[in-house]
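A quick aside before the break. I want you to see a complete sequence-to-structure record at least once, exactly as it would be stored in a machine-readable document. Don't worry about memorizing anything.
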Amino acid sequence: MKSNEVFSGLRDIGELAKKMVTMKYHITYDLVYRLVELALVLPVATATIERSFSAMKFIKTDLRNKMGDNFLTDALVCYVEKDIFASVENEAILQRFQAM
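That is the input. The structure line, written in tokens, reads:
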């Protein structure tokens, strides 16, 4: 890639990934492209995991230490995505459960 002038003006890894796709190099150099993808995804995945463990600290207290995995997962999803759950009206939830 050093010999190709198309790649000389790139500033970051994201631009490299975009340029590889536009020039179809992601097919030829699939392992290099996969490495670039992983380098781009790693910070997001790390932040998500850290946020999940931080949320688990609030959910799994000494009083609730014996909860099952399914209930813990459901409680964590509700805690992490609390903005989405706050936008849902209680009446809609009640009607859905009554229809069941």
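Two observations worth writing down. The helical segments are 13-22, 25-28, 30-59, 69-80, 82-87, 90-99. The first helix runs from residue 13 to 22. We'll return to this after the break.
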